[in-house]
Design a protein that fits this description.
2 copies of one chain form a homodimer. In chain A, 42% of the residues lie in helices and 16% in strands. Chain A is α/β, with parallel strands linked by helices. Chain A has an 8-stranded mixed β-sheet, with helices on one face. Chains A and B meet through helix 4, helix 5, helix 6, helix 7 and helix 8 of A and helix 4, helix 5, helix 6, helix 7 and helix 8 of B. Bound molecules: NADP nicotinamide-adenine-dinucleotide phosphate (NAP) (2 copies).
Chain lengths: 262, 262
């Protein structure tokens, strides 16, 4: 049995709490948050506290708090030589106060409080200062059906950056498509199956292999018409830059005639 | 019963053929392709031909051929006053020869020959010169479990452009993430669940609502670190442009200090 104390009550902590509750080999001994409001409704299931001095002993303390709070909060923990991990993709392991044994338990997913999360779809990137602690984090990930990956600090920061591309930037592509189609009174629902299929394809095939479309085909007529159709200069810049990026990836050379419309 | 003659044997025609074969209210009377090779193995299921002069009468002729071939091939059809549609997102209805009644049957999905396609995930954008033909195309779409959408020429071209953003450009985001993570010997599999979740989220929520990450939060420390991590200038340009795009969407102002590294 692994005893866990959760620190923080945001998106990540809330999902971890629910997952640990359902895991047979994990017990959440305490749940701390600086404001009591977020956790008080759980008081029948676990011990909820908002005073760090009440923290008990546990196998691991999971600090799922805002990136900026990790360093300072880890300093104020009223104990030493225990195992403390944070859940951030970008914060260094060394930002945790060195009075405790440090680690990282970074769930590479996009959490929001409303949506349920099945942890079998959450890869967990783990890193520890002491090799002996690695197994515990692996067990913890597996206890909630997650797949653990041992990752170095540098790799984790690269993964966090890659996640911006596949998550935030892809989502912005959806947003721009939404803007463009809304302007012509087109129901965005029409595009949803294609969004899913695009994500599905790269589960089996590399993104390189699954690329299609006018940029990859170097279909100049369509490329020109699309630039003409785009009324927003920023959208045109994005269209040109990403078309060039696709063509570079696939070894094609094409230059848009004019960077600006008119 | 709707009788169909298919013209072309590429990705779209092949998937349509299989779907029509399974549809109770549709019969594929003939299947034409200029090269016999691609269709000859179907000769026991339908009449396969590679000579336009052998074309029989049917309720609708579906020309699923390369965009560039639509106009010329439609001219060479040896009949008039019949109903002919193409399947392209970008070709005008008026590119079809006006000696026949014209229409469009554009499946908004990304097809590839290997992968099976469930047409319940394929919205079909339909457009007809004569209003009376609209119902037949609707029935045809519904016969293969697709959802038909009546769309104008302008809307269809905007949808085709939007599809480039959600499909080709998102896929290029996956590709860049693949490059970045490969360079650090990170298994791309770790990113796949996030790719799926990102696409899943916008099935229920708008892309505006589902945006997260350092650009949206205006997390300057992370934005700077990411730019520093990116070794490829093109990747940096994309990071900056898309960060600015997200920030504009969400009403945030942030300027990257230096456009170029070093
Ligand atoms: N959201 C994701 O998709 C995701 C994915 C992977 C990793 N992460 C990482 O997981 C961590 C938590 O993210 P989150 O999305 O759960 O954040 P969140 O929903 O914004 O919640 C932040 C939590 O941190 C607490 N907190 C903030 N500043 C604090 C301070 N100075 N002292 C004590 N507590 C403080 C907040 O307490 P109050 O309730 O009192 O405000 C809240 O419980 C971050 O490191 C993040 O990078 C997030
Ligand atoms: N692929 C998609 O995801 C997708 C999605 C929606 C709409 N579409 C549209 O559907 C249409 C077909 O696309 P596709 O992907 O199926 O294309 P494809 O796989 O490249 O197949 C093209 C077909 O057109 C035939 N063809 C080409 N030039 C011809 C000519 N001059 N005369 C007669 N036949 C000719 C080819 O015949 P041969 O076999 O003899 O070469 C082949 O059967 C296009 O308008 C495309 O824009 C495609």
């Amino acid at each position: 049995m692994i005893s866990v104390i959760l620190i923080g009550a945001g998106n990540v902590a809330s999902h971890l709490y629910r997952a640990f509750l359902n895991a047979e080999s994990v017990v959440v001994k305490q749940w701390y948050n600086r404001s009591f409001e977020a956790i008080k409704s759980y008081k029948n299931d676990t011990e909820v506290i908002n005073d760090l001095s009440q923290l008990k002993e546990a196998d691991v303390y999971i600090m799922a708090v805002s990136d900026d709070a990790v360093a300072s909060l880890s300093k104020t923990l009223p104990f030493t030589n225990r195992f403390v991990v944070h859940t951030s993709g970008s914060v260094s392991l060394h930002d945790l106060d060195k009075k405790n044994t440090r680690g990282v338990f970074y769930p590479l997913q996009s959490f929001s409080k409303e949506a349920e999360m099945d942890f079998s779809n959450v890869p967990i990137c783990i890193e520890t200062e002491e090799k002996t602690k690695l197994q515990m984090l692996k067990d913890l990930a597996e206890a909630i059906d997650s797949k653990p990956y041992k990752i170095s600090t540098e790799q984790r920061q690269t993964l966090h950056l890659s996640a911006v591309f596949v998550n935030n930037f892809s989502n912005q592509m959806y947003r721009i498509a939404h803007e463009i189609s809304d302007a012509k009174h087109i129901n965005f629902d029409i595009l949803k199956p294609l969004i899913l299929e695009t994500a599905n394809k790269v589960q089996e095939m590399s993104p390189y292999m699954s690329q299609t479309g006018p940029a990859k085909r170097n279909d100049k007529k369509t490329l020109k018409r699309h630039i003409k159709l785009l009324e927003n200069e920023e959208h045109r810049d994005i269209y040109e830059l990403l078309t060039q990026s696709i063509q570079k990836t696939h070894g094609i050379k094409y230059k848009f005639n004019s960077k600006k419309k008119n």
